[in-house]
Amino acid sequence: MTATSSSFLFSGCFVTLLIWGYHSTEMTVTICGNNSHHCQEYCSFCYNFYGAPTMDCLSIMLDHLCLLKFDGAMASLNNTDWCSWGNVSVLYSNLSLCTEEISDCLVIPWPNQLVEQTFVDIHSRFFKDCPTEQLSDPPPVIVFALVITPICLIPVMVSLVVLKTKNADGSS
Question: Which has the least CB within 10 A, 4, 78, 135, 169?
């Protein structure tokens, strides 16, 4: 065997090993979701206790990892502060990110019915007494004034245009 044919053979084996290694790591990533720092922990928990990432496993993780933090943070606020978006926006965003990260790691679509129900429960527990400002129609008097004003102005504007053209006498 010559030096060029053996280096060709060696290069072919090396490329094959690189491709195989890439595909095997790619399979590990796709089985467990993304590469966040907690993903392997989440996946191994689900595989150990449920055999695979399931909605039951996601439910347990959301309860213990996301909701406990959110509940504790909300408990540290006064009930009156719950209705101020400035006070709860960071907590709410962190909860949303937590549910999304765990779902992504377990390769479960987000949002899903469980996550939606979690947020509905949170709203019914913490935000049900918050006043909501709903848009409503203005009183009929205001509507009438806003509608009638342009209608009355149209004949006035037409009259002014006609008078201006009659008085111009062709010299504009």
Answer: 135
DSSP, residue by residue, 15-74? HHHHHHHHHHHHHHHHHH-S--TTHHHHHHHHHHHHSS--HHHHHHHIIIIIIHHHHHHH
| N-term to C-term CA, the chain | 103
pLDDT digits (tens, 9 = 90+) for 50-64: 888 889 999 999 999
Virtual torsion, Cα 26, 65, 47, 39, nearest 10 deg: 10
Q: Which residues contact 67 (CB under 8 A, 6 or more apart)?
A: 95, 118, 122
Return d(Cα 28, Cα 34) in angstroms, integer.
Answer: 10
CATH for the 33-126 domain, from 3.40.50.720, 3.40.50.620, 3.40.30.10, 1.10.150.510: 1.10.150.510
pTM exceeding the 0.70 threshold for the entire prediction = no
The closest of 99, 128, 104 to 115, measured between CA atoms, is 99
Which tokens go with 44? Answer: 């191994």
In the DSSP assignment, the letter for residue 128 is T
